[in-house]
Amino acid sequence: RWVYMNGRYVKKEEATVSIFDHGFLYGDGIFEGIRVYDGNVFRLRDHLVRLYESARSIMLDIPLKIEELEQSVVEAVRKNELRDAYIRLVVSRGKGELCLDPSKCNDPQVIIIVDQVRLFPQETYDRGLKIITVPTRRNVPDALNPKIKSLNYLNNILVKIEANQAGVGEALMLNGDGYVAEGSGDNIFLVKKGILYTPPGYVGALEGITRQAIMDLCERNGYTVKEQPFTRHDVYVADEVFLTGTAAEVIAVVNVDGRTIADGVPGPVTQHLLKEFRQLVTVDGTQ
Ligand code: PLP
């Protein structure tokens, strides 16, 4: 495996960053997780637009034009000779001094790792996932806006730890007002009386690329999707619940906080959308 580091390719085992990198010291940076299906990078431009928006919001200058970075990602995939892969694109503020001030960080690090990811076994997709809600709250959008995919993922990591301790595969964060925001690394949808609902970004969710792909598929398949805040109660009484994310793709949820969702098996809309999604990524490639 080859890792792209600021225009150079370094062997995976030899790819290292400085302990003075503010990405390491303070989580000062941003990232994207992107999938490659059958040699095509899925919605690369959308991921890059989100990356550059995250960068603008935290005042980090990515030292490449979006077209150049796009080219580099495609090249890194090619160099690693993987048809199906997961890309981790990281931009950190770079090496600086032992203080918060980033003004001495003159050399942002742009890193592209091409590897593989498998979040859940196929069995989990067939049976559905058991999840919980956890005490960790999603940042309210005034501090560090959850729309920024920053290297500060401690909130999300705590959620994952809380899920692990409860012996479940994923957990949901609520926002400060008690509305359901998202999972540790995925967005949530529910289906009620044939209509799909997903929390709007302002509730405190990252506007996922997979979420958007599902919304596009809904439109093509005649489903109505409403971006609307909802509570845990709405989740418990939904007809279907599923999560979406680059790593998880589309995964049914069959139990939340001990409440079985409907009859406890992946529902027809979820199954239909998972099938459509798999087709979209494999047949249409970059669509
Ligand atoms: N929410 C969070 C906090 C995430 O980290 C991710 C993963 O990227 C998502 C949602 C899902 O977004 P996407 O579909 O773009 O992977």
Distinct ligands: pyridoxal-5'-phosphate
Gap between N and C termini: 27 Å
| Unreliable segments of 5+ consecutive residues | none
CATH class (first level) name of the largest domain:
Alpha Beta
The fold-level CATH name of the largest domain is D-amino Acid Aminotransferase, Chain A, domain 2
Radius of gyration: 19 Å
Proportion of residues in β-strands: 25-35%
Broad shape: globular
Topology as a string of helices (H) and strands (E)? EEHEEHHEEHEHEEEEHEHEEEH
Q: What does the main sheet amount to? A: 9 strands, mixed
Number of strands: 15
How many discrete domains? 2
Number of helices: 8
Secondary-structure content class:
alpha+beta
Average pLDDT level: 94
User: What is the CATH superfamily label of the largest domain?
Assistant: D-amino Acid Aminotransferase, subunit A, domain 2
Q: Please tell me the CATH architecture of the largest domain by its name.
A: Alpha-Beta Barrel
Query: How much helical structure, as a percent, in the residues?
Result: 25-40%
Oligomer: single chain
InterPro entries: Aminotrans_IV, Aminotrans_IV_CS, Aminotransferase-like, B_amino_transI, BCAT-like_C, BCAT-like_N, Class-IV_PLP-Dep_Aminotrnsfr
Keywords: Amino-acid biosynthesis, Aminotransferase, Branched-chain amino acid biosynthesis, Pyridoxal phosphate, Transferase
Organism: Desmospora profundinema
Catalytic activity: L-isoleucine + 2-oxoglutarate = (S)-3-methyl-2-oxopentanoate + L-glutamate; L-leucine + 2-oxoglutarate = 4-methyl-2-oxopentanoate + L-glutamate; L-valine + 2-oxoglutarate = 3-methyl-2-oxobutanoate + L-glutamate
